[in-house]
Amino acid sequence: MEFPNVFLHNVPRWSTRALLVVGVALSVSCNRQPEWRGTPVTPATTLASTNFSDSTGATVPLVPSAGQAALVFFGYTNCPDVCPTTLADWVRVKQAMGADAGRVRFVFISVDPARDTPAVAQQFAAKFDPSFLGLAAPAEQIANVQAAFGANAVVSDPHAGTDHVTAHSAQTFLVDDRGTILVAYRFGAGWDVMSADLKTLLKQ
């Protein structure tokens, strides 16, 4: 960090040194990484531009708008436990965000394209909160998006038809408005942990 020359004119040498020390301190402070309560994604990964079609056919970008953040989770609507528990935690996260709740996108992405259409995924997400976003897409697109997050999903019995069970990663991911995947939260990490990190991110 450089101070404009105008600040250094006609000041004693000790004052100049003091200003330089302050400048170094401010530079270090600006470069300091936030102390996340979740698990930092190292190195942080930036998503390529990815669009989905929502239940109305409108195009929805995965990366949140400027000044916003997103929580992203991969699951499926027939999930018996992990998925509904995660979205129930999101309800409490949204409540904890108070006036900043509108700056957070809660994104549920289905990994079960055989059963979950965009309409089905949205209906599932909206059961927890009308503002939650449920997305679905062809298998190839979902696989590519999961790979960017380091997530995965496996159909336990591909021959079971619509009765199959899908094993999937259970983390929630925090994404900033540049599309950077910053933090991962294991299943059961807690709504308070996620809301604390969201508040930290949105203050930046």
Major β-sheet profile = 6 strands, mixed
Number of helical segments? 5
What is the architecture of the largest domain at the second tier of CATH? Answer: 3-Layer(aba) Sandwich
Terminus-to-terminus distance: 18 Å
Please provide the count of β strands. Answer: 10
Plain-language structure description:
This protein is an alpha+beta fold and 204 residues long. The chain folds into two domains: 1-32; 39-203, Glutaredoxin (3-Layer(aba) Sandwich). Helices cover 33% and strands 23% of the residues. The protein has a six-stranded mixed β-sheet, with helices on both faces. A two-stranded antiparallel sheet has the order 2-3. A two-stranded antiparallel ribbon has the order 7-8. Helix 2 (82-97) crosses helix 5 (191-203). The longest helix is centred in the first third of the chain and has 19 residues, at 13-31. The protein is globular, with a radius of gyration of 21 Å. It starts with 12 loop residues before the first helix and ends with a helix. Residues 1-30 have low confidence and may be disordered.
